[in-house]
User: Fold these one by one.
Assistant:
Number 1:
Amino acid sequence: MNRSRIVDIQVHVVELPLRKTWQISLYAANRRAHAVVRLQTEDGIVGYGEAAPSPAFMGETGYTIETVLNRYLREAALGENLFDIARIHERMDSSIDGNSAAKAAIDIAVHDAMGKSLGLPVYRLLGGKVRPRMALSWVVGLQSFDQAVEEARRKVAEGYRVIKIKVGQALADDVRLIRTLREELGDAVPIRLDANQGFTPREALALLDQVRDCPVEAFEQPVRKWDLAGLRFVRERSGAVPIMADESASTLQDACNVLRNEGADLFNIKVGKVGGLYRACQIAALVEAAGLKATAGSNLEVSIGEAASVHFVASQKALSLPNDMLLGSALHSANLVSEPLSVIEGHVLCPERPGLGVDVDEGLFGHRS
């Protein structure tokens, strides 16, 4: 019989360089601090988790995760049974409010260890496989006009199914880029807009009014995350463009409030944003029950966090939109695993090995296999 009590949790922060400056309306960065969790059970099973939030986006970094985990979450999870995931979350929530990325790192490590303990891939623990392969979108960050157009062209040629472009800093520049990409890529390639809270409600509508003749797949998080009235204001006047909630749906309760307020047609459910796989699946069920659809985005996690997102999307019906969950590995010049997940013609397959299905560099924690 498996002995599944958690006996050790370690966290290590690794700063990984980005290949080029990553910029959205909230911030710009050249490096990312990734918090990597190593969890061990009493029978020697090891699970890994990862979170890589930005302070401007979530109020957390790899370093705050390290502090919160060592001072609060470690004690909450030690001694618990791997398979009591609801209890682990209850204890984490009781120990400290918020800090959903820190909790996600623990949650992902727990699921990795659960899968390894049973000899099953994580998606089997989440309900089984709904889709055999997952279509991917690519995100074009804020950069020069020529760079943005070239990057979008290249990613479409590589097979990415949706091009998501960051907007929200200069309306005229946004309009020019949208119009150019629609002309360059044709109507067959969906274009998704993401303002990361960069607009007021009226500014968001002004953008949509100026590109009415350019079909837009969705408009993600046009207004500040707390402005649910503004989100609904935009949705009611957006015409045929669906409105997607991201930062406004950072918790299960947030997502419920967005639905009650009729503020969004779609949701972006990021495993590392909402507290891990357990919470992500709860939100996915809520979205499914409302008859809506979702995508899974990225906090620029590399392959540990990305693998968690892939298992999540593979197992949840609501996650039927193309996802930009594999953004981090492509944008960083280093990784935490020996073999990152492969993108094949704009799609990714879910790992079939036990746990997350990736091989983590144990040297991060002073261990060698």
Note: The longest strand covers residues 6-23.
Number 2:
Amino acid sequence: MRGSAIDWDRAARRAAVLLPAGPPTDLVGAATVVESLREGSRQAPGHVACVTGLQDAGERAGALPVRIVDRAGWARAATQSFAALLGDHLTGGPGLRGRLSAAVAGDQLGGALALLGPRVLGQFDPYTPGPAGAASGRLLLVAPTILAMHRRLDVDPHEFALWVCLHEQTHAVQFAAAPWLADHLRSLIAAAVAGSDEQGGAVPTSRRPGRPGRPVPSPRAATGATPRLLASMLDDAQQEDVDRAIAVMSLLEGHADVVMDEVGTGAVPSVRVIRRAFEKRRGRQRGLSALIGRLLGVEEKVRQYRDGAAFTRAVVERVGHEGLNAVWEAPEQLPSPAEILAPDRWVERVHG
């Protein structure tokens, strides 16, 4: 019997050991951060709904659970989300060899999470089942990283907490407006990773109906969106699936960036100051951190935010948020990778 190709629990434990705890603070300081995040997470869905016009989705998003966690708690939740997203498609080898391979993969994933963890402020997880009859999903807010970031940027802590919540709750509203979106994204990513060879192995192939599996011909250059380590393991069909998934994620991230800023100074008086400081920090990686970022795809993540935000602004300028909301109606309405970079093509296709 084969288990998963990754020992998810081991990955969470490894990340928890390696992750720095966060900046020092006293009990009063910690309680203040937590209360700011609780209040921000309560306020944010209403603000997002006002900007986007997605009132019903805003109400559903506001009813989802919010978890304020430390970095180890985020890593544990992230591995649970990855397992829900990919676990059925990453089958390990049989016997002791398969278990050892899964343990090594768990250590590797845990190490990657430990490198990325100090950058993560929050995460909306659409793959956690809700109570019977309730929507799936939960919001995670990483208190020590939010504390460290507002200190580093030297911005108002309460306004920064709300600003972070606006971004993450925009994701909650997106998935509430498009109940099919989580499964659609899962199917795209699953199609790209479903080609492990029979030895548990290293040669991905595409096995979808009508697309015979074939080994990767040779290492290839990354596209503008695909991380370099990942690109070298993809064949053409898998690259297509990855590019489509990245187009969706670019939309989600860029849309959230635009919405959080459009809420404006009425809710977050220092929004422009926060945005300038945050963007300056996004572009400041140097040396080893920049190298790691390039290998793991962090710089591509920044590009996702920018491409998706440019798409969102261009579409809103032409057809407003109401016209943009067509993306949440069906998978066919999502922008293609080409349309993310050419918003007018999406507007012409969808709105004529």
Note: The longest helix spans residues 236-262.
Number 3:
Amino acid sequence: MKQVALFTLPKCKWCNEAKAYLKAKKIKFNLIDLSTNKKALNDCKKHGCSGAPVVLIENQWICGFDKNKINKALGIK
């Protein structure tokens, strides 16, 4: 199974949508709070992501909650 990390912010509607989506698809993921982890925030910015959520699948950065990109990266429908 591919390594998945979900970078979120508190009270972020799309972050909660992404979290629920990954759980519904039974995808295990590491949850990282960008409001408390400045290194993770800088990593996201370095890869061109300016908001949350950010999904990291192996070495592919997905800015925002984009189901199609997430599914393609995970090889699911």
Note: The helical segments are 13-24, 38-46, 67-74.
